What we know:
Elements: H1 3-19, H2 29-34, E1 43-47, H3 55-58, E2 66-70, H4 78-90, E3 95-101, H5 105-116, H6 124-140, H7 146-164, H8 166-173, E4 178-185, E5 190-197
Helix pairs in contact: 5-6, 6-7, 7-8
Amino acid sequence: MTPAEAWARLEEGNRRFVAGEPRHPNQDAATRQSLQHAQVPFATLFGCSDSRVAAELIFDVGLGDMFVVRTAGQVTDSATLGSLEYGATVLGTPLLVVLGHDRCGAITAAAEAYETGESPPGFIADVVARLTPAVSQARRRGITEVNGIVEQNVRQAVHQLPERSTAIRQAVNAGRLVIAGVTYHLDVGRANLVASMGDLGAPATDAAKEIR
C-alpha cells in the first residue's frame, strides 16, 4: 500500500464514521485468528490519550490495521519515538498520522500554565512543559484559542518527528513514509488533514521536501 492509498483508506473510514454508517471491518473472530502470529498494519498513528478520540473507531478500521501510540497531547519522549520508529521501520507502515483534537485537556493545561506561570502537580507538569513550545509558537502567531494551539502542536510534531528520529527521517527521504498531521473535531467526528511531510498524491498544507 502506498502512503496515498493508506490515507485514502483512513479518509473513507472517517467519512463512514461521520455519516453514522461504520462497517466495523476486521473485528470478527476470523480476523482475530489470522493475526495470532504476525501483524501488518497499514498506518502508524500517534494520537492523544483522550478517551473521546479512539483512533480505530473514528477511522472505522479494525484489528491489525493501525499501530497506535497515544500520549496526552501527543507528547514525545524516547519511548514514544522508539514506538513510532518500530511502526514506521520494523512494521514498515507507509503512513504516520499525528492526530490532535478539539478541546484537548493537555493543551488547555499548558495554555493556562503559560498564562499564570503555575505548573500542575506531579508528572503532569512534565506533559505541560513539553507542550509549552507549541503554546509559545502559537502565541507568536497571534493564536490564543485552544483549538488553534492544538493545530500548531500537530504541525510542529509533523516537522519535529523526522528532526528527532534518524530512522523516521530516512524513511521520509526515501519515499517509504509520509507523515500526516490531522485534527479531529469532537462535535462532528471529522478528521481534517492540516499538514504533511511527503507526497500523499494531492496538495496538502505545509508539504515539505527532503530534510537534511
